[in-house]
Amino acid sequence: MVESLNGNIPRGRITGVKMVELAATYGHEGIRIAREPFYLPQGNEVALMRAAYLEHLPVLLKGPTGSGKTRLVEYMAFQFGRPLFPVGCHEDLSASDLIGRYLIKGDSVIWINGPVLAAVQKGGIAYLDEAVEARKDVTVVIHSLTDHRRYLAVDKLNETFDAPPEFMLVISYNPHYQSVLKELKPSTRQRFVAVELGWPPPGLEQTILEHESGVDAATARLLVEAAGKIRNLVTQGLEEGVSTRELVYAGKLLVKGVPVRDALFSTMVEPLTSEPDMKQSIIELLANYFRVR
User: C-alpha distances in angstroms, 36 versus 39, 195, 197, 253?
Assistant: First the structure.
């Protein structure tokens, strides 16, 4: 007997059904983006993602932290009118976390959908953020969704689910700080349309800061110029440059009246490094634009 808690029996290509007392829940509806997210394209990434969606191709977003990868996915989900199923990947994330698992509830065995299976069923966008951080079995599971097959095999249900035309798979990762052991395999990378994001050009980044934080144009320009200098320290040992996100945070703190030194130290110094000499280098750069000493 298969019982559904909301009356929906899973649809897929049946390869076998184990007769168990099963209560199936399919309550994961994803996130509906109600308002259009603010996003200014750096280049042709919007056109690339739109073409990939129409051709049912998976997308790999590459770029540094805070460069707009997640915002781009949210923007495209709104444009396509599809629910978004985001997953923040980590080293303990397993294939079962993405597909689903059985849980015991009272006298029933309940199947709980994972976000990827839910996205396949709902025709949504499955977004795996920092996919390289997940366990190796995760990438194996999604392989069948990244080529002409476009299906998800769920061994625990003895069932295969075909992805509808509306489904899209997007993964992202930051190639700048990944170790060799955590790099995506070429066999995985070459299954995707790759879209690379970097730091926005200065004029574009200033516009973003003004819109997102409410800071005035002059201060936004100084923040962007200082960020450019700090990012150059990557060649001198800084792990990663200050992100656009941190600049927005700095602007918001300044707008709220937080002292300049406190606002900039908490967003453009402390999050970047714990190394005293590198901190001092950043402070010296900031001192060319703001009173931080």
Answer: 9, 21, 20, 25
The pair of structure tokens assigned to 64 is 């540094």
Q: Three-state DSSP class for 260?
A: helix
**DSSP assignment of 82-112, as one string?**
--EEEEE--TT--HHHHHEEEEEETTEEEEE
Strands (E), the chain: 2-4, 13-14, 22-25, 59-62, 84-88, 100-105, 108-113, 125-129, 151-154, 159-162, 168-173, 193-196
d(CA 119, CA 103): 20
Is 215 exposed, middle or buried, given 0-12, 13-18 or 19+ CB atoms closer than 10 A?
buried
Which strands sit side by side in the sheet containing 2-4, from one edge to the other? 2-4, 22-25, 108-113, 100-105
Question: Within 10 Å of residue 30's Cβ, how many Cβ atoms?
Answer: 19
Cα–Cα distance, 106 to 120 (Å, whole number): 29
Can you give the pTM of this predicted structure? 0.85
> What residue spans define the domains of the chain?
2-196, 202-286
CATH number of 2-196: 3.40.50.300
Cα 200 to Cα 191: distance, rounded to the nearest angstrom: 27
Average confidence (pLDDT) per 10 residues, the chain, 293 residues? 34 36 49 94 96 97 91 97 93 89 87 93 94 80 89 91 96 72 75 94 96 97 97 90 95 97 96 94 95 74
Cβ–Cβ < 8 Å for 138, 94? yes
